[in-house]
Amino acid sequence: MIGSAWRWRRFAPGLLIVVLGAAACTSLSSDEPAGSTPATTAPESTDETSPDQTNTDETSTDQGSDPTDTTSADTTSRAEDGTAAATAEPTRLVGDYTVQIISERPHDPTAFTQGLELHDGRLLESTGLFGESERRWVDPQSGDVLTSTPLADEEFGEGITMYEGTVYQLTWKAGRLILADGDELAELGSNSYDGEGWGLCTTDDQFVMSNGSNELTLRSPDTFEIMGVLTILDANQNPITALNELECVGDQVLANIWGLDVIVAIDLSTGAVDAVIDASSLRPANAPSGDLNFALNGIAYDAATGNYLLTGKLWDTIYEVSFVSS
Ligand SMILES: [Ca+2]
């Protein structure tokens, strides 16, 4: 974790929300890549071990709840008929899940995926690596890139989201939040943030951002200033570090953990870990497990079906999945 105490003082005095994770996260340990740090401490994001430096320069990687809710596994049945879920509220995720593959779609195997969202039948994707980063609109069925705009060579694309028709994209250590046109993806302007930018998503009234630590910042949709901080801990009060790509779904935020084939669902009001999703069964043949260049790193919720589209860095497949209680 990168100096969390420092960030407390600097960014959010009096606003920090410290919450103990409510759900057991025991499944995390079984999904660790070989040689990683224990369980919920995943690969840390210190300068010494940041994703950028775990690889060669050219190919560096970036690398709640209502426990009585028994309806959380019902997404599949509602999703498969494609109608009931279209207007339904997202199913709240509580407990432990695995993934069930509904369909497989092509994904550009050169896309170092850093952010993924579905908007009006198009996938918004951010890709990383210096000199190769882009923001894209992608056909979610064919995987074809419909529109793309490159970033400057010195900027490394990270989390991406859309709010009121404008696209927002993080640039890892560059500290620049790019604002872009929602159709053509042309840059409209920029804002700034301190520290590293990893994942990004939007609720109705706030941005949620990760930075590789176990903290999520809640930010103003107008100024991007920090309004609050969630500190994410497991059931043993250990930090769940390396929170990476995010997806805001209802009153939860889903985060895939860098270096682990695991997604956690976090209560946006308390920071409690409501659910743990084991996605380790998904890796395509071209994405060797344990290689951080091929980390699971893309979550897009499909409100029309209640399913999720999941992919990873350099994966050749996007999986449409439902989450199944385990
Ligand atoms: Ca996402």
End-to-end gap: 30 Å
Arrangement of strands in the largest sheet: 15-16-17-18-2-21-20-19
Helix-strand sequence: HEHEEEEEEEEEEEEEEEEEEEE
Radius of gyration: 18 Å
Low-confidence stretches: 1-85
The CATH architecture can be given as Beta Barrel
Number of domains: 1
| Alpha-beta classification | mainly beta
Beta-strand fraction estimate = 35-45%
Annotated CATH topology: Lipocalin
Q: What would CATH call the class?
A: Mainly Beta
Bound molecules: calcium ion
Describe the structure in brief.
This protein is mainly β and 326 residues long.
Helix and strand topology:
Layout: H1 4-11, E1 16-18, H2 75-80, E2 95-106, E3 113-119, E4 122-127, E5 134-138, E6 145-150, E7 160-163, E8 166-169, E9 176-181, E10 187-192, E11 200-202, E12 207-210, E13 215-219, E14 226-231, E15 243-249, E16 252-257, E17 262-267, E18 273-278, E19 296-302, E20 307-312, E21 317-325
Parallel strand pairs: 1-14, 2-18
Antiparallel strand pairs: 2-21, 3-4, 4-5, 5-6, 7-8, 8-9, 9-10, 11-12, 12-13, 13-14, 15-16, 16-17, 17-18, 19-20, 20-21
Description:
The protein is mostly beta strands and 326 residues long. The protein has a single domain (4-46, 88-325), classed as Beta Barrel (Lipocalin), CATH 2.40.128.630. Helix content is 4%, strand content 38%. The protein is built from two helices and 21 strands. It has helices at residues 4-11, 75-80; strands spanning 16-18, 95-106, 113-119, 122-127, 134-138, 145-150, 160-163, 166-169, 176-181, 187-192, 200-202, 207-210, 215-219, 226-231, 243-249, 252-257, 262-267, 273-278, 296-302, 307-312, 317-325. The strands form four sheets. An eight-stranded mixed beta sheet has the order 15-16-17-18-2-21-20-19. The protein has a five-stranded mixed beta sheet with strand order 1-14-13-12-11, covered by helices on one side. A hairpin with a 4-residue loop joins strand 16 (252-257) and strand 17 (262-267). The radius of gyration is 18 Å and the shape is globular. The two termini are 30 Å apart. 51% of the residues are buried. The model is unreliable at 1-85 (pLDDT under 50). The chain binds calcium ion.
